[in-house]
Amino acid sequence: MKNKSIQVKGLQKSYKQHQVLKGVDFEVEKGSIFALLGSNGAGKTTAVKILTTLLKPDSGTVTVNGFDVASKPDNVRQAISLTGQFAAVDEILTGRENLLMIAKLRYLKNPRQVADDLLKRFGLTEAADRRVSTYSGGMRRRLDIALSLVGKPQIVFLDEPTTGLDPEARIEVWKIVKELADGGTTIFLTTQYLEEAEQLADQIAILHEGRIIASGSLSELKKLFPSAKVEYVEKQPTLEEIFLAIVGKKEAM
Amino acid sequence: MEVAKNHFLSDMGVMLGRSLRHITRSMDTIITVTVMPIAFMLLFVYVFGGAIQTGTDNYVNYLLPGILLIAIASGVSYTAFRLFTDVQRGIFERFHTMPISRSTLLWGHVLTSLVSNAISVVIIILVALVMGFRSSAGILPWLAVVGILSLFTLALTWVAAIAGLSAKTVDGASAFSYPIIFLPFISSAFVPTESMPSVVRAFAENQPVTSIVEAIRALLSGQPVGNDIWVALAWCIGILLVAYFFAMRVYKNRV
Question: Over 80: is that where the pLDDT of A166 sits?
């Protein structure tokens, strides 16, 4: 019980007539990476919004860091942070000012130091005093994730963190996620890229039409299928592999 | 783990600081807000003014209160715009997943609106001084004018908040201000209502702008204010309370 960061039982949610979540159950272990996999419209974002206290569940119980999201949202908010689908950064402020703002809202004692450390860690030191409106998509996403790490929340929610990023930026995000999990942070991420779940997740749950239709570790999921047939297929490099080889970033993984 | 509940002032400070930076980094918005009222003032004083009979020898004095209201009505539409982008960009979502006082999100924008409109009003009064505006009013009447204008700004800013929070598009967010900008034209702001046809006159004399304009005009020229100031205050406070109620409702439904 104490090893679970997130527990979801019988979660249901409808928007008017449309039932989005039809009874979802899953658990996330402390310090693990959990991937919620599903196609567009499967209800991933709705689930994230409920887990992060933005939406109230219709029925079922959702416990995050030991607190019920519906009755103790403030306690849940102490422990979490959310990086949504669109970079939630203030474009008119600089990168540093964005970090300082969140650090002050988390009542940290030394906001300047925290901002400097995160800027360095995310390779944004040079761009720190430029307005975010001048940042590239990858830089924005990095700043967005950096903002979510201010104050070292125990559970980090990433809703499709790599959607719309180029391959290099995607690999960078993967690296950050792995480092975070190594440091003991629980990561809850949603994705529609199978490869992303395969690369990162300790546990995977597949959400389809409002229900979890399969869950487990990658090897457990693989066991659900008949054992692989051996076939000889000429291995062609994917365009992504070619791209990464040319730009020389493959080693960064 | 202690729950942060008593951080209202600290949160408020951060939100206000953020939103004030938006103003200082986009001074062009203040210029945009002041240019149109100043153009109206020039047009009415130097083009139409000679033909308008107001019964006073200083038309700038007569005109200024209405011009200030026009400036405020167009200034608050930036609040609607900023709220709209905050909701749209997901910044509100980030704040809402943090243990901070939620009402500070709106109040930060509202107080910033007071500051930016105060800057616009001061600029317009300076231009009016150059054009011949003179006031014999002492410190108390001026304070009363500041009070009325602040209440008017607050009331319209909460109206702007409703628009900004409920709009589906950027244009929708600021469209609400056009009818409000137009209201001073059908009031005693530019010409005395006596010259209007009876239906228009009835509307003009009973809409909020006339009483506010008359009250400010009387205060600035050292005349007795009579009932106008109470009617003006009642309008401002009434609009403020109704708009605040609906803005909060939209805010709770939206997030």
Answer: yes
The amino acid at A180: L
Q: Which range marks the domain in which residue B186 is found?
A: 27-91+115-254
Taking CA B213 as the corner, what is the angle to CA B212 and CA B219, rounded to the nearest 5 degrees? Answer: 90
> Mean pLDDT of all residues in chain A?
88
CB proximity list for B173: less than 8 A, separation 6 or greater: B77, B80, B81, B83, B84, B163, B164, B167
Q: How confident is the model at residue B6 (pLDDT cuts 50, 70, 90)?
A: low
Domain boundaries, chain A: 4-89+152-249
Closest CA of chain B from A246, distance in Å: 35
- Number of domain units in chain B: 1
Phi, psi of A101, rounded to the nearest 5 degrees: -60, -50
What is the complex's ipTM, to 2 decimals? 0.84
Is the pLDDT score of B160 beyond 90?
A: yes
Give percent of chain A above pLDDT 90.
56
Instruction: Fold for A4-89+152-249, please state it.
Output: Rossmann fold (3.40.50)
Domain membership of residue B245 (yes or no) is yes
**Which of A54, A82, A107 faces B4 most closely, judged by CB atoms?**
A107
* Beta carbons of B30 and B104 less than 8 angstroms apart: no
Q: How far apart are CA B243 and CA A247, in angstroms?
A: 56
B201 at interface of A, judged by CB pairs closer than 8 A = no
How distant is the Cα of B81 from the closest Cα of chain A, in angstroms?
14
- Region A130-158: what's the mean pLDDT? 92
Give the CA distances from residue A11 to residues A46, A50, A71, A192, B157, in Å, rounded to whole numbers and listed in that order.
Answer: 11, 9, 15, 21, 40
* Total CB pairs under 8 A between chain A and B: 70
Nearest to A178 by CA among A156, A163, A159, A193: A156
Question: Please, are residues B240 and B153 in contact by the beta-carbon 8 Å criterion?
Answer: no
Residue B2 has pLDDT above 70, yes or no: no
Residue B6 inside a domain? The answer is no
Between positions 82 and 111 of B, the ones with CB within 8 A of A are 89-91, 93-100
State the pLDDT confidence band at A41, using cuts at 50, 70 and 90: confident
Tell me what pLDDT residue B3 has. Answer: 42
Name the pLDDT band for B40 (thresholds 50, 70, 90).
Answer: very high
- 3-class DSSP state for residue A84? coil
pLDDT tops 60 at residue A249: no
Instruction: Please report whether residue B156 resides in a domain.
Output: yes
For chain B, give the mean pLDDT.
Answer: 89
Report residue B151 as tokens: 């209440």
